[in-house]
Amino acid sequence: MTAPLTPPPPPNERSSYQGGPVPPPVGAHAVGTPPGAPYGTHGDHGEQDGPGMLTEVRQAAVAVVAVALSGVLLGVLWWKLAPSVPLVGEVVGDRWLVYLKESEGEQSVGVDGTFTLLALAFGALSAVVVFLLRRRGGVPLVVALGAGGLLGSLLAWRVGIWLGPAQDVVAHAKEVGKGVTFSAPLKLGAKGALLAWPIAALVVHLGLTGLFGPRDPEPDPWPAPYGKTSA
């Protein structure tokens, strides 16, 4: 007596794997691939999320130039708004001596304070403009914002000195005459004020990016059970 023979499986249930790639199910396509595109591709042009590194570097270069050139306006405002430091020239023997008219005056401190406040305002304004024009940010843009702010401060410092009173105080005293009050040249005593612009720009830009910048979608902490789909 022999055991009954097991019938062979139907042809559609036999494995068709011959060492080649397994075709995807009918109607399935890769995530991000439009219907009709070859399986495993991401579109015809291979587009990436956001601009490439070359585009970011170009945008950063434009930001450096624009922010630095705005230092000209800062220099003009510093020259206009900074308090005047009064000097007086006297003749002792055959020599001219120049001294402060008010030895206890605080005009020199006001000159540094005016530059610092203006630089802080320009730093905050430049950060807001850059953020509004380029919300995605990026390391090159942040570096450009800090470098442009520092260059803008240096440019404003030199422009203000150039527009201000003459640097040769003895020649200026001789020109106006003995005992006549004249303004001292613009001088930035606290060189640390040059860092006010880049520091303010980076802090404000960081705050804007943290509050209003684009965010990645958060993953679902409770995935649906295997084989089930959410309604």
Explained architecture:
Residues 1-12 have a biased composition (Pro residues). It comes from Streptomyces plicatus. This is AAA family ATPase. It is a single chain. The protein has 231 residues and is mainly alpha-helical. It is 45% helix and 7% strand. The chain contains six helices and three strands. Strands 2-1-3 form a three-stranded antiparallel beta sheet, with helices on one face. A hairpin with a 2-residue loop joins strand 1 (86-92) and strand 2 (95-100). Helix 4 runs antiparallel to helix 6 (196-212). The two termini are 57 Å apart. Mean pLDDT is 78; it is low at 13-17, 27-33 and 36-49.
Number of strands: 3
**Which sequence of strands runs across the widest sheet?**
2-1-3
Rg calculated over all Cα atoms: 35 Å
pLDDT averaged residue by residue: 78
Instruction: Specify the biggest β-sheet.
Output: 3 strands, antiparallel
Share of residues in strands: 5-15%
What is the N-to-C order of secondary-structure elements (H for helix, E for strand)? Answer: HHEEHHHEH
> Which overall shape is indicated by the principal axes computed on the Cα atoms?
elongated
Cα(first) to Cα(last) distance is 57 Å
Number of helices: 6
Specify the helix fraction band. 40-55%
Unreliable residue runs:
13-17, 27-33, 36-49
Q: Report the structural category.
A: mainly alpha
Organism: Streptomyces plicatus
Keywords: Membrane, Transmembrane, Transmembrane helix
Biased composition (Pro residues): 1-12
Region (Disordered): 1-52
